[in-house]
Amino acid sequence: MKTTKHEKLFLAIDYDLLGITSVEVNGETHEVKLHHKIVYSYLQSLSGTFKQVTPSLTGIGKRLGLGTDQTVRRHIKDLVSFGWLHVKERSGCTSIFTVLPYAQETQQEAPEEAPAPTMTKVIEDAVIVAESAPESVATTVIPPKNRCVYK
């Protein structure tokens, strides 16, 4: 992909993918790290919609700042074990990568929390104080019905 002087490429990462922290493979739970998500998203961006791509390990490492071919190879091996990537080895410098849809982990429901304050509640709890008000006025607790302080 060629870019102009003022055009920058960026990598889009699916929010659902960012939310995945682990996957289960053959009954074992494996951590999904940010580097896994970055490599997966990069290969997916090259492939468009789940087509085959042939970037080199060195190219992936340089583009994503992941370092050596060995590091990239380890992340790709993990993606294959997660079932998110298929790799067809071939002679030469590149393999054929087929990006597969990732499986979202089952999200556990978060424990119930207190509801977030509504704007009405925030306004009711607000105290308006003039900038030039003495400190004694600014720290005075005002009954709920008479919250505004005017000077």
Automatic annotation (TrEMBL):
Pfam families: HTH_36. It comes from the Bacteria. This is Helix-turn-helix domain-containing protein.
